[in-house]
Write a structure and sequence with these properties.
Layout lengths: L6 H18 L2 H7 L9 E3 L6 E2 L1 H13 L4 E13 L2 E13 L11 E15 L2 E11 L4 H14 L4
Parallel strand pairs: 1-6
Antiparallel strand pairs: 1-2, 3-4, 4-5, 5-6
Pfam families: SnoaL_3
Organism: Streptomyces gamaensis
InterPro entries: NTF2-like_dom_sf (IPR032710), SnoaL-like (IPR037401)
Length: about 160
């Protein structure tokens, strides 16, 4: 029985490791996960942020997020992996649970949920998949229901 992993499985593991590093607040692991090639610029878009370019700027952004977040957990759903040669694309939904600011010292604040759709691009370097780019966009909850509701309201209006 073979235990060799496919490229898609390796990419999915690298993608999971990215989120686990954020959950642990592990800046060292984060640095190991991102592409470190002077000829290739990495990029990152956190929800609501401008585009960050360059390894230093991207890693500083993650360090800032991790330092200012008491608790965060990612539940990844809708994960799709596509590999083409030494490049891979992962799309997924980040179901995020995070702790808000605590009212009292030593306590965790209220938990807040958020949905973000993400695209992560990886490059294979010396047999390892490294993050080349991350882009996260918030999902506006209930938007489809609101749009559908407006259409139903219009259908029930005058002339129906």
């Amino acid at each position: 029985m073979s235990t060799a992993r496919t490229d898609s499985e390796r990419v999915e593991l690298a993608n999971t490791a990215l989120y686990e590093a954020v959950e642990r607040g592990d800046t060292v692991a984060m640095g190991r996960l991102w592409l470190d090639d002077p000829d290739t610029e990495v990029s990152c878009v956190h929800p609501g942020w401008p585009v960050l370019r360059g390894r230093g700027e991207v890693l500083r952004s993650y360090a800032l997020i991790m330092a200012s977040t008491d608790y965060i957990q990612f539940f990844l759903t809708d994960v799709e992996v596509s590999v083409a040669g030494d490049t891979a694309l992962v799309t997924c939904t980040e179901n995020i649970l995070s702790g808000g600011p605590a009212e009292e010292e030593g306590e965790l604040g209220p938990l807040v949920g958020q949905l973000v759709v993400a695209t992560n691009v990886f490059r294979r370097v010396r047999g390892q998949w490294k993050v080349w780019s991350h882009h996260g966009s918030p999902v506006l909850a209930g938007r489809e229901e609101e749009d559908g509701g407006d259409e139903e309201d219009d259908a029930d209006g005058p002339g129906s």
